[in-house]
């Protein structure tokens, strides 16, 4: 079973991917954590690495290679902005999370322990660079949700209730995947 969890910053990708992995007893891999590790290795901020990645697609390709290698092992939830696109052919369930901008920014400010204004400035800069990067290097708009099976606004319920919806969807897909296919031939 391969599940992807994508969406903009502050929608809960890592939170819900971890909950899914725990509930399904499978692994969790975060493309964002891989990108953050690369930034740390290079001793640059996420914003600086994003700017470098705009000119040099090898940074994104490295993240893609690492997450694809993990997905190839199976039984994994991969969270990341591009996970649903990178693993489009191999994933069983592609989830896209959303939330209103004000909710996302409040979450980011709380998580990163910065002011709301700083969270807004950092997020707008990162997302602007990412939109351009993904279009330039991958040929698609990150806002395109056409290849996702499930789109869910994480501001509609509690973390627990939202996680239940996602786990229910994953369990349904797992059951369908395990069930023998019925022939439609007469």
Describe the protein in words:
With 186 residues, the chain is an alpha/beta fold. 58% of the residues lie in helices and 12% in strands. It has 8 helices and 5 strands, in the order βαβαααβαβααβα. Strands 2-3-1-4-5 form a 5-stranded parallel beta sheet, with helices on both faces. Helix 6 (101-112) crosses helix 7. The longest helix is centred in the last third of the chain and has 23 residues, at 116-138.
Number of helices: 8
Average pLDDT: 92
Uncertain spans: none
Quaternary organization:
single chain
Q: For the CA atoms, what is the radius of gyration?
A: 17 Å
What is the terminal separation in angstroms? Answer: 31 Å
Overall number of strands: 5
Question: Class by helix and strand content?
Answer: alpha/beta
Order of helices and strands: EHEHHHEHEHHEH
- Helix percent band: 55-70%
The spatial strand order of the largest sheet comes to 2-3-1-4-5
Sheet with the most strands? 5 strands, parallel
What fraction of the residues are assigned to beta strands by DSSP?
5-15%
Shape: globular
List keywords for this structure.
186 residues; alpha/beta; 5-stranded parallel beta sheet; 58% helix; globular
């Amino acid at each position: 079973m391969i599940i992807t969890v994508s969406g903009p910053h502050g929608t809960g990708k890592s939170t819900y991917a971890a909950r899914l992995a725990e509930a399904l007893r499978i692994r969790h891999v975060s493309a964002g954590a891989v990108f953050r590790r690369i930034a740390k290795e290079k001793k640059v901020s996420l914003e600086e690495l994003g700017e470098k990645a705009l000119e040099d697609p090898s940074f994104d390709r490295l993240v893609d290679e690492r997450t694809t290698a993990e997905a190839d092992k199976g039984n994994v939830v991969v969270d990341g902005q591009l996970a649903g696109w990178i693993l489009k052919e191999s994933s069983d369930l592609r989830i896209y999370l959303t939330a209103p901008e004000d909710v996302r920014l409040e979450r980011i400010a709380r998580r990163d322990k910065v002011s709301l204004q700083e969270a807004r400035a950092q997020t707008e800069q990162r997302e602007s660079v990412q939109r351009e990067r993904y279009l330039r290097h991958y040929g698609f708009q990150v806002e395109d949700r056409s290849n996702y099976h499930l789109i869910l606004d994480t501001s509609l319920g509690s973390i627990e209730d939202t996680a239940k919806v996602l786990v229910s969807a994953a369990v349904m897909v797992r059951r369908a995947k395990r069930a023998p296919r019925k022939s439609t031939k007469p």
